[in-house]
């Protein structure tokens, strides 16, 4: 049966439409990342004229769907391209708040801390010369005067004062060395108690032979309160053997010899040379000396050995022996590792310390108890007639708790503001 001419043209149009869609799909897959057609994908005028689908009347709906799909793909590709091609200098880099530069307000009136001025190293004509920090003599003299009024544990129980006076010089030097070895990571009060145990319980007394004869377990029991007593027992027993075999029964008289002993570091060696042999060959720098001199701004060091080198480069040698004792006592009483008492320090009053911190208020509760008769039977009750809290001037206006006592028992707690005369108003007499 023959088909009409119209039917044949309709079939050719359908086949051309299917072929055109296939070509469009292949071209869209070859698009670049920025959504622009390649040179080979651009439609030519001849191709459009040859396609039977170029007429909007014949394939309007299909072409509209293809354009919408193509438009969505172009938008996605353009967004990805713009995100990838932003220059680095136009991006915003987030920085830590701690590293952000601090902006100064125009009306800022807050006083700034005194800038630290450590020792300076300059090149002299022949060698590197270290200039001492400014006002260091005033700081040193003020600290020495303040330490005379404040008694610290190191003044009565320091390693220099723990050796027995009735012993021979050789035994006293040995006891000084052992006291220094025990003092590491240990408070002076505990070290003094351990030394007393050794002096009273070692066989034959506290001497070299006594250290050699005592059993390690017994020696460990004598010093069990000190820090790291197990290791110190091994170190001291080994040191006694080395002293007997290599140093003729006496402790070494050089820094190299002392440092070679087990458990003895540079700090102990310099302190031992000064206390036992009377020779100041270096500064014994412990945690107090290292911490306080950095707080003063004399230098900026990270280890005690660096602090020792800095101090020895400019501090007069006649002060090498005293500075350890001076600053250890200051660190034990006023310039504590935690909770420094700057309000009691003369350096803070004279504004000589650049690391002053606001200390917590000192409050002292004052009670005045009276006895009154509250009934005809003669029963006596104790009541608080007057009670106040003495505080420093910085605490004016701060509320403090005031307790009302009755025969030792708290019967009432009030929050009263501190008055201008630095005492809180006492509650009325309360009888219970």
TrEMBL record:
Residues 182-333 form the HhH-GPD domain. Residues 1-14 have a biased composition (Polar residues). Its main location: nucleus. Keywords: DNA damage, DNA repair, Glycosidase, Hydrolase, Lyase, Mitochondrion, Nucleus. This is Endonuclease III homolog. Belongs to the Nth/MutY family. Residues 1-135 are annotated as: Disordered. The keyword Hydrolase applies. Its EC number is 3.2.2.-, 4.2.99.18. SUPFAM superfamilies: DNA-glycosylase. One of its GO terms (biological process) is nucleotide-excision repair. InterPro entries: DNA_glycosylase, Endonuclease-III-like_CS2, HhH-GPD_domain, HhH_base_excis_C, HhH_motif, NTH1. It comes from the Eukaryota. Bifunctional DNA N-glycosylase with associated apurinic/apyrimidinic (AP) lyase function that catalyzes the first step in base excision repair (BER), the primary repair pathway for the repair of oxidative DNA damage. The DNA N-glycosylase activity releases the damaged DNA base from DNA by cleaving the N-glycosidic bond, leaving an AP site. The AP lyase activity cleaves the phosphodiester bond 3' to the AP site by a beta-elimination. Primarily recognizes and repairs oxidative base damage of pyrimidines. GO terms for molecular function: class I DNA-(apurinic or apyrimidinic site) endonuclease activity; DNA binding; oxidized pyrimidine nucleobase lesion DNA N-glycosylase activity. PROSITE patterns: ENDONUCLEASE_III_2 (PS01155). It catalyses: 2'-deoxyribonucleotide-(2'-deoxyribose 5'-phosphate)-2'-deoxyribonucleotide-DNA = a 3'-end 2'-deoxyribonucleotide-(2,3-dehydro-2,3-deoxyribose 5'-phosphate)-DNA + a 5'-end 5'-phospho-2'-deoxyribonucleoside-DNA + H(+). Residues 39-48, 60-71, 101-111 have a biased composition (Basic and acidic residues). The keyword RNA-binding does not apply. Residues 16-26 have a biased composition (Low complexity). The gene is NTH1. It is found in: Nucleus; Mitochondrion. GO terms for cellular component: mitochondrion; nucleus.
